[in-house]
Amino acid sequence: MYLTGINTIQSQSKKLEKDSPKKVREFFVASLVKIGDPVLDALSKNELKAKMPVERSPGAWDARTNVTYLEAFGRLLSGMAPWLELGPDQTPEGKLRAKYIDLAQKSIHNATDPNSPDFMNFVNDKQPLVDAAFFAQALLRAPKQLWEPLDAITKENVIKALKSSRKIEPYQSNWLLFAGMVEAAIIKFDKDEDQKRLNYALEQHKKWYLGDGTYGDGPDFHWDYYNSFVIHPMQLDIYNVLKDKTNDYKTDFNTELKRARRYAAIQERLISPDGTYPPIGRSLAYRFGAFQLLSQIALWKELPKEVTPAQVRSALYTMIHNQINAKGTFDKNGWLQVGFYGHQNNIGEGYISTGSLYLCSEAFLILGLQETDAFWSDAYEPWTQKKIWSGQEIPIDHAEK
């Protein structure tokens, strides 16, 4: 069923309150699979470049065919990784995971094999650095399923591909973290990391912290969702690798986690009673990927004390349900189309193409929690805006340094 219009969204929101936690998880799994299946099915057969359409916005910078395939693969896998890391089991969901773990492993092989029809561009243009980083992030989020089972040749090809992206110099912005994320994966899985690229990214972001859980994108503040698309999640994952290697980074990790927790609290308060949120800033075509950070903090069980897992699940469910069911979100063959609510091609910036859109999968990080976890088993609970706009009391909100 497709949703159209604010009245439909509002009436649908009330109905969703009655859905059981089990039904909600089944929706999340089905939605992630719906998003990911065309990409992984094609890539696992070396058919991604042949099958994936490349939709561009009216102001597209170029054809985008040299970068869009790695975008789709790296971003999808980064969001899907925690679910895959749960591994296979004999439940229906576990058997489904087994299928996509297999497809993901084959896709990793094909994407990094220089002799493969779907070998991906990690070096030409600037954009491949971005999606080498999302690919690296996926490996860090699911090492038991996406790295350890790979054969030696594939592992070697992966490391070569990641290291080849070093020729790309990042911009003085969130892009520094893409270079840092690649180096974090090299620390984890290989050797000879580039300490300069790694540490420069982290030190600059210390300088760009503006307070109350928010970083500038570079030295300046931007009203957009890049603190969630990139800045917090990548710092968390980089520091998570570093703190396991040496105690020198534990303080930095704890500081970043505190800031990320605050930003997650803000994100939860941004979701309206009917599951909509402000269409502010760049890259709105990433849709609900804008709430990656809230999903990651829930996955890590680090939600602020005033935010319960059930209210986050309920908010994300309503929000994702709205957008994924809007008419035009997918084309007739199941590929994502450019838009925020449905198909709105004009909303894409010059760098947006079909592959870019798969960043939306980052909202599904919470599928890395077992279905028995409180996040997936506690009863429905209204989130902050739903409470206050129905006259209930909510905790006073406080800024943090």
UniProtKB/TrEMBL annotation:
Under InterPro entries, the record lists: DUF2264_N (IPR049349), UCP014753 (IPR016624)
In terms of superkingdom, the source organism counts as Bacteria
For this entry, the protein name equals DUF2264 domain-containing protein
Instruction: Name a Pfam family for this protein.
Output: DUF2264
Which intervals hold domain DUF2264? 25-383
> What is the species listed in this Swiss-Prot or TrEMBL entry?
Flavobacterium hydrophilum
